[in-house]
Amino acid sequence: MYCKETLLRSLSHGLAAILLLVAIPYAATAQTRAFVGAKIIPIDGDPIDDAALVVADGRIAAVGAREDVSIPDDAQVLELDPGSVIMPGIVDTHSHVGDVTGGDRSGPIQPEARAMDSVNVRSSGIKRALAGGITSVNVMPGSGHLISGQTVYLKLRDGNAITDLAYRFEDGDVAGGLKMANGTNSMRQPPFPGTRAKSAALVRAEFIKAQEYAERLAGGEDGEAPPRDLGLEALGEVLSGKRMVHFHSHRHDDLMTAMRLREEFGFRMVLHHTSEAYRVADEIAAAGVPVSLILIDSPGGKLEARNLLAESAPVLERAGAKVALHTDDWVTDSRHFLRMAAMAVRAGMSRRAALESLTIRGAEMLDIADRAGTLTPGKDADFVILSGDPLSVYTRVLETWVEGERRFDLDDENDRLVAEGGFNALSDDDGNGHIHGHGHGDTE
């Protein structure tokens, strides 16, 4: 990690000074820091050896080769091991950390349910995400509904409440998308649909209601505003383009159904999971629909995913589609997210596209690319320090920084416990897995 001998030389040689350094590696309140000596992968440019990253007031101030970067005189200079790597904080476009829930058993369409009203910011799931180098995350309700509710985009900064972590829309509202799904997860006994055709019909009918509701709000024939409807309001935000649809879908025919709905109603959409994306990659690319892809080393769990192939990653890349990766935590534990990009490269995806899929592509899909996803001066100082190449199975996440503050440190015994497991590493209520919203025993 840091070359502590270099820091020690800057202190007095007295024993007291040495003990102070060991107890307090460096002050967490310093406003300007320069991280030097590591290899930097900025994502928006080529990797830089023996580089410097300057962070000031929670933002990236400068990035470049060490000899080319002007480091402020008052900056705290942190010398890193030359084998270490700095890259942007990872963006997870689909996660269920924080014990999140969404809609209940009362019906298949519940856009009024908000993930933000159920996330536990003290859940060890958030700590696990930081241990995996994740700094921004889309926390989603489950997929047991056609529409299970509103997602919430979180920056994993220190905070006492969900509103402290939440990204914001331009109007100040808490930012997030809308979780939708099709396929077998949402097919069950009435009032839920029993077929794929009925699933699409119910969604189509609800969006037509939302269109009519929006027209009445804008001043219909009689000019009288309709009674307030929280669900139709949320769908109105989708129709206006404010809120992105995050669509859970696996089979190639379900993917095409999702894209037909998008074309019919004109909403913005990210396709999630896409187990059979390789079968309709050209259609996805032609529609300009981005994909949030999951790759797992042990496919299975449901019939819809039995044809999942890691080759979807390179096939989508060659077709010209934008691809991000996601954990679907707990499906993939957030602590092991980096290996998914390595699996994509092993399947034939380019190294550049794989690293982009962990960073800037996800940021684009969450509408946060102006703040995250690359180490561009002016963006938030969200970055991760790795022990080596991000695609190596031997690489460890050493530190995770969010807005210029260190949120995970492998050298801290409590953080290491979360990173490596062991007794008491997880909170009692962090083992519910992937909750659909029908009850704690009903998981994917």
Secondary-structure blueprint:
Layout: H1 4-9, H2 15-23, E1 32-36, E2 39-40, E3 51-56, E4 59-65, E5 76-79, E6 85-88, E7 90-95, H3 124-131, E8 134-139, E9 147-150, E10 152-155, H4 162-165, E11 178-181, H5 196-217, H6 230-239, E12 245-249, H7 252-265, E13 269-273, H8 281-287, E14 291-293, H9 312-319, E15 323-325, H10 338-346, H11 351-358, H12 360-365, E16 383-386, E17 397-402, E18 405-409, H13 413-420
Parallel strand pairs: 1-5, 2-6, 7-8, 11-12, 12-13, 13-14, 14-15
Antiparallel strand pairs: 1-3, 3-4, 6-16, 8-10, 9-11, 16-17, 17-18
Helix pairs in contact: 3-13, 5-6, 5-7, 8-9, 10-11
Give a quick set of tags describing it.
18 strands, 13 helices, 444 residues, disordered C terminus, alpha/beta, TIM Barrel, five-stranded mixed β-sheet
Going by CATH, the architecture of the largest domain would be Alpha-Beta Barrel
**Total number of helical segments?**
13
Domains, number: 2
State the end-to-end CA separation.
39 Å
In terms of DSSP E residues, the strand content is 15-25%
> Regions with pLDDT < 50 over 5+ consecutive residues?
1-29, 431-444
Could you state the CATH homologous superfamily of the largest domain? Metal-dependent hydrolases
Main sheet: strands, sense, barrel = 6 strands, mixed
**Rg for CA atoms:** 23 Å
CATH topology of the largest domain: TIM Barrel
Principal-axis shape: globular
Description:
The protein has 444 residues and is of the alpha/beta class. It folds into two domains: 4-83, Roll (Urease, subunit C, domain 1), CATH 2.30.40; 90-373, Metal-dependent hydrolases (TIM Barrel). It has 13 helices and 18 strands. The protein has helices spanning 4-9, 15-23, 124-131, 162-165, 196-217, 230-239, 252-265, 281-287, 312-319, 338-346, 351-358, 360-365, 413-420, and strands spanning 32-36, 39-40, 51-56, 59-65, 76-79, 85-88, 90-95, 134-139, 147-150, 152-155, 178-181, 245-249, 269-273, 291-293, 323-325, 383-386, 397-402, 405-409. The protein has a six-stranded mixed beta sheet with strand order 9-11-12-13-14-15. Strands 2-6-16-17-18 form a five-stranded mixed beta sheet, covered by helices on one side. Strands 4-3-1-5 form a four-stranded mixed beta sheet. Helix 8 links the parallel strand 13 (269-273) and strand 14. The chain is globular. The chain starts with a helix and ends in a 24-residue tail after the last helix. The model is unreliable at 1-29 and 431-444 (pLDDT under 50).
